[in-house]
Amino acid sequence: MIWVQLVNGLMEGMMLFLIASGLTLIFGVSRIVNFAHGSLYMLGAFLTYAFVPLIAPGTVAGFFAAVLAAGLVTAVIGTAFEVLALRRIYGRDSLMQLIITVALVFIIRDLVRWIWGPNSLMVPVPDALLGAWVVGETWFPLFPFVIFAAGLVVVVAMIGTIRFTRAGILLRAATDDRGMVALLGSNEKLIFTGVFAAGSFLAGIAGGMAAPYGDVNYLLDTTVIVSAFIVCVIGGMGNLYGALAGAMVVGLTKAVGVMYFPRLSMMLIFLIMAAVLVARSMGRQGGPAR
Amino acid sequence: MRVQILCAASVLALAAGAALAEGEALKVGYVTGLTGACAPISEDGLNGSKLAVADLNAKGGILGRPVELLIRDSQTKPEEGGKQARELAASEGIEMLTGVCSSAVMLAVNEVAKEFKLPHLAMIGSTQKANIEAFNPYFIQTQANATMEARAAAEYVAKKAEWTRIAPMGFDYEWGHTSVEAFTARLKELRPDIEITEPVYMKVGEANMGPYVTAALSSKPDAVFAAVFGGGLVSLIKQGQAFGLFQKSNLVTLLTVDTLQSMGSAMPKDHVYGIARAPFFALEQTPELAAFIEAYRAAYGEYPTDWAINGYDAMMFYAKAATDAGETGGDAVVAAFQTGSFDGLKAKGLKLRGFDGQMDAPAYVGEVNFDPAFPFPTMKNVEKFAGASLMFSEETIQAMRDAAQ
Amino acid sequence: MSLLSNQMSPARWAVLLAAVVGLELANRLTGAGTSLMLAEMLILAIFAASLNLLMSYGHMVSFGHAAFFGLGAYGFTLAVSRAGLPVELALLFGPLLAGFGGLVFGALCVRLTEIYFAMLTLACAQITYTVLFQWYDVTGGDTGITGFMPARFGLSEANFTTLVLVVLAVCLALMARLVASPLGLAIRAVGQDRWRAEALGLAPRRVQLVAFVISAAFAGVAGTLFAAFQGAAFPDYAGLGFTLEALIMVVLGGLHSFWGGVLGAVLFTQLRHWAPVLTGHWGLLLGIVLLIFVIALPHGVAALGARLGLGPKGDRA
């Protein structure tokens, strides 16, 4: 049973990382606490619901194509929001940016309820991914493995982009020191927009990939956003590799915790987050915790 | 589209009312979760109630007065529901409160009912707290409450002689805990030989059920009893298939028509047993029910869910009580509820026990079935458990009230 | 801070007096429904003002202020329902429990700064919420505690609203006095530049902790009144929803202004009250209006008022 729980935990951790990676990237570069990130995730799930029947339904390739399409549309919507609203208030109090993302939460939630209704919707698992590997008495469900593998592909692509491309270099530079990047002549606005688009894309495909596993409903936004924040905090806000570690810690804690502390699993994760934060403050006596 | 149909239907209803009923409008405070976690089922309940209002007004309203629903969105938040109900009671001159979905909102609204001495008809929310420590004489539960439902499930499971080990699981909140506890206690009474494992609880609305299904299946149970509903239940059934839940075990859970519709063809063909409040396909097929199903499908383009039938029944019960009392509100209506006999779509001849405001409404348990007559799974071999057999005795209720003090 | 200093001109006193008289007239003349709406608005104004104290003067951004609203509500409710105290005495336990929560959480949080401070307040609030939600035997779990007292102490709608108005006035007067006091100056100094403040001999963390506890206790006053208003307490009161609403109110009203929280509370509760009356898609309307406000009013409503010469000047923190 512990092995199944490890698989459950890793799969949840991967999903959490896909969500949190976008959140932490955006924070790292633009210092925006994006409360609407969960809404973009939800949008990705609903768009996948809309696209799946249109693109080779039932096939694995068709499903991933639908997820990709949903991610792209989510990225377009995120970009539009960045350009039309967020960009107008860069340089103001960062709380203004936070409130504007909360406004987006209200808007997306209501639009989704308007378009798709309040009921739970189902995205079918591609036929080839139904079922499980049966090892003795234990069932290892197939779909979570595939999601985990697909997540790994995204992670590798993301790390590759950040390490080896010009965009990645700019992104790393901007995370370290925005002002310097601007002084060196790079277009700061373009970097911000690009990061927001990439973050939205990641949220969109995360929502899409998770969609067939459970149900799709218009309350997914709040379900997801708090977990995503926790992951970012455990890993250090703006730290991508930290987020990966944080996501795995949260996913595994939840799955294994249910075996040992069934009543505590809800609180356990917040306790870890609080412990990490308190430890952070101990480690840096006297200096600003960053 | 749906919204337009809905509007058209309510305009028609109002027009019909205006034509036939002459008196001053009889205002009903309808506080329900049109947004938030309750949104999917609240809308169904409201749709059913709207049809009841249309029917009532077509026949001259209640005591000659046209019925008007004052609909407010509780956002599925108790403080918002309490505020909306209080504003309606204080300034709109409502004579009855109904529509509430979530347990917490129901208890908040119940306080308002007590304060303003308004009959409060429960039709979706089902916490037994309202019958026990939070009871007041204005509370009227028109359906089987959560405990009765769980006890019906226990009766059903007890008859499965081949099942010897049951693993309960539930959402980690009041409804989940009371359901699991009531189920466990009743099953132990009926079948002392059955082993019941330690319950597994998960966060309300949890989407990743994998860890919890794994934990529940680890003791190799013959059946899993799940006090889970809505999106979480959909996730449980979908993910359970890949963990062998329906090959290695059976699932007994709340299966209202909305969940059956959401699951559609993704529902396993076998090994799923559902508890329901008012499954239209398993009720006594009366002309009233046939007419309701037809009208509902015409108005909203889908089959009525349990919540829609409950919404219709609640309004009709109120009309009957008010007619019997010759008054539309206050203690007279409550008294009429305690003496009358009520015929609803979900069952006939229902009676209210004034001691805890509970109607002896039945609960239904059956097996999932794919009937080609319907575009979604339904249930077969549905057993009806009479409400009276599921209710705690007055002594037990009193003991629970004392214990809660 | 100008409210109690000699900068408080007669004109501003007149505006303030007019607002109070206007509110009381609306409360008395327009029926019980309006009174209820006003009572909620004024309670949330106390809540928002308590957060504003923390944010505008202490420069501490909390993502978990609802924890203290919730603790206030439960401190009062539990004192009545479980300890059996008379209501008048129990009223003290709301702010007390909230202040105590502020002390415990604050001691952890003030070790951190900026976003990590905010995130730790979020974690503390979620832990509070989970305890209220799951500790069924004491807190009643998700279905809360009801029926422990008549709603509004049995007062009429209008009388209760007047009472809340008085409490709000007292709270604001206390806050104004605090801001103008040496302690208030220390809080502002640490908020603006903790290093310079430390160099001047202040203990930044201790000052921040004091500010945190005071703010939590005022939030507890609001929570206590809210529980009395509803005649009920639910874990929701400590949830993310109330935290976000308070943040919106403070930012909408205007950061770095004494009146920001109150103005924001008035504006936001009115928006939230009327949007569902206008449309079933109130979320969309609310979101769009918020978006426009934030983009159009860079410094909140208080600043707009100041620019038009209406609000108090010279109270920029």
Automatic annotation (TrEMBL), chain A:
Signal peptide: none annotated. One of its GO terms (molecular function) is transmembrane transporter activity. InterPro entries: ABC_transp_permease, BCAA_transport_permease. The chain crosses the membrane at residues 6-27, 39-56, 62-86, 98-116, 139-162, 190-213, 225-252, 264-283. It is found in: Cell membrane. GO terms for biological process: amino acid transport. Belongs to the binding-protein-dependent transport system permease family. LivHM subfamily. Its main location: membrane. Keywords: Amino-acid transport, Cell membrane, Membrane, Transmembrane, Transmembrane helix, Transport. This is Branched-chain amino acid transport system permease protein. It is a multi-pass membrane protein. It comes from Gemmobacter aquatilis. The keyword Transmembrane applies. Pfam families: BPD_transp_2. GO terms for cellular component: plasma membrane.
Automatic annotation (TrEMBL), chain B:
It comes from the Bacteria. Keywords: Amino-acid transport, Signal, Transport. GO terms for biological process: amino acid transport. Transmembrane segments: none annotated. The keyword Transit peptide does not apply. Belongs to the leucine-binding protein family. The keyword Transport applies. Residues 26-369 form the Leucine-binding protein domain. This is Amino acid/amide ABC transporter substrate-binding protein, HAAT family (TC 3.A.1.4.-). Residues 1-21 form the signal peptide.
From TrEMBL, chain C:
It is found in: Cell membrane. GO terms for cellular component: plasma membrane. It comes from the Bacteria. Keywords: Cell membrane, Membrane, Transmembrane, Transmembrane helix. The keyword Membrane applies. InterPro entries: ABC_transp_permease, LivM-like. It is a multi-pass membrane protein. The keyword Cell membrane applies. The chain crosses the membrane at residues 36-54, 66-83, 89-108, 115-136, 163-188, 209-234, 246-269, 281-306. Signal peptide: none annotated. GO terms for molecular function: branched-chain amino acid transmembrane transporter activity. PANTHER family: ABC TRANSPORTER ATP-BINDING PROTEIN, HIGH-AFFINITY BRANCHED-CHAIN AMINO ACID TRANSPORT SYSTEM PERMEASE. This is Branched-chain amino acid transport system permease protein. The lineage of its organism: Bacteria, Pseudomonadati, Pseudomonadota, Alphaproteobacteria, Rhodobacterales.
